[in-house]
Write a structure and sequence with these properties.
The complex is a heterodimer. Helices cover 78% and strands 0% of the residues of chain A. Chain A is mainly α. Chain A has a domain of 162 residues: MetI-like (MetI-like fold, Orthogonal Bundle). In chain A, helix 3 runs parallel beside helix 7, helix 3 packs antiparallel against helix 9 and helix 3 packs across helix 11. The longest helix of chain A is centred in the first third of the chain and has 34 residues. In chain B, 40% of the residues lie in helices and 24% in strands. Chain B contains 9 helices and 11 strands. In chain B, the strands form 2 sheets. Chain B has a 6-stranded mixed β-sheet with strand order 2-1-3-10-4-11. Chain B has a 5-stranded mixed β-sheet with strand order 7-6-8-5-9, sandwiched between helices. In chain B, helix 2 runs antiparallel to helix 9 and helix 3 runs parallel beside helix 4. The chains are: A mainly alpha, B alpha/beta. At the A-B interface, helix 1 and helix 11 of A face helix 1, helix 3 and strand 7 of B.
Chain lengths: 260, 253
Amino acid sequence: MIGRPSLLLVALGCVGLALFVVPFVGLLARTPWSDLPELLGRDVVTDALRLSLVSSVTATGIALVAGVPLAWLLARVEFPGRAVVRGLVTLPLVLPPVVGGAALLFALGRRGAVGEPLYEATGLLLPFSTWGVVVATTFVAMPFLVITVEGALRSLDQRYEGAAATLGARRWTVMRRVTLPMIGPSLVAGLVLTWARAFGEFGATITFAGNLQGKTQTLPLAVFVALESEREAAVAISLLMVVVSLTVLIALRDRWWRVL
Amino acid sequence: MVIGPHQVTATALTLIVLASVGCSADGGDNHDLLVSAAASLTDAFVEIEAAFEEAHPTVDVILNLGATTALREQVLEGAPVDVFVSADRSNMDRVVDAGEVFGKPEVFAHNNLQIAVPAGNPAKVTGLGDFGREDLLIGLCAEEVPCGELARQALRMAGVTPVIDTNEPDVRALLTRVEAGELDAGITYVTDVLSSSGRVDGVVISEELNAPAEYWIAVLANAPNADAAVVFVSFLLSGEGQAILGQYGFVPR
């Protein structure tokens, strides 16, 4: 940048920074440092941590397997109603998560449009189960992957793939050795965002999957319950979430920032 | 550094924001009465609000309904609440112990537990014993909330180990799930089942197992509108207030 940044720029930048730093400082100020090991060792915390990690990683995996093909279709294939599909995929990003959870309930709950026949036929029920948590978190987090990958595919110079094809490579080979490596950084960024969103998901989870320690009570739900009964535990769990999230984000910082 | 139009705008904006924040922080409107009340009192208090506002047109009652524990935390964190209404003694005691109460809290009503089932009782639940069945979808209020604590007490007295599928944050959330048929049964208050106007059926819990709930009310020490708060409490304890509570199934003090 030529010359020094203007005062206005610095002032507004500081306001932005404060918005991020102040709540975090508040959290650190309230942390019961001496009780931390005991609080974090409790069953309710280890159960919630396990559930959060398992469900967020599974959701990210599903998003990868289902989301990349979807992104491909949206980016490369001109089918009727493509704009509508793209709108639908983006919808969970703007819908309040609780509304998303309620919608899932209306569709997949025991009296839901799809859930009822499914239950009658197979006895399978998603609400109040860990798979319900996975479905809820996938619903809210997958759009991140689809949008990121679609953007990357669109901005790809297709001549490289064309060149590979002329050299005799078949479709899957082109995909594997040209396309995917070229969108690699965006894919990783998308996966990180998806995982982060899934890890922090609350509204859709508590509405669709319910709240039960060991089965559906992820870290955000554990914080919510602890806030009203034992604030110290809530602060400890919140700190745990911040540490886990920061670790992942900082570990992937180069790839992530460069692409975004 | 050159003082130019950018710098002037930035300073002006900052001053305007600070001024408006300063103005609204001084307590403003004296005619609002903020009442934090337990979720199970929802329907009764909506009517009490209307009756009170009719009798006192200058006061605007604002109801803040939710789980007693959440409301207690708000008060302890310094929320500008005038009246605190708790669904049990221990939560009120915590507020008293923190020095937040003006005068003494009073009991103004009682309630009893009842099993709530979806209309038509599809799972054929007959009593607390069914709460041990694994094939049923059972919900309770979270353990920390008065309704959840009392429900677990009743189950203990009945010698039942419940197989729970979800712990709901407050009694109305639980009621909604039962109403929607997502759960086969839950333990709520008698008044909640009544308020659902037939969308939920009730299964009686016998008296010797039933743990009664006590509702406590207090004016808060830092109430912005203490005068109106005192009048509101006496209204609730008066014949008219008690009659409205009775209509909704609450047992008078």
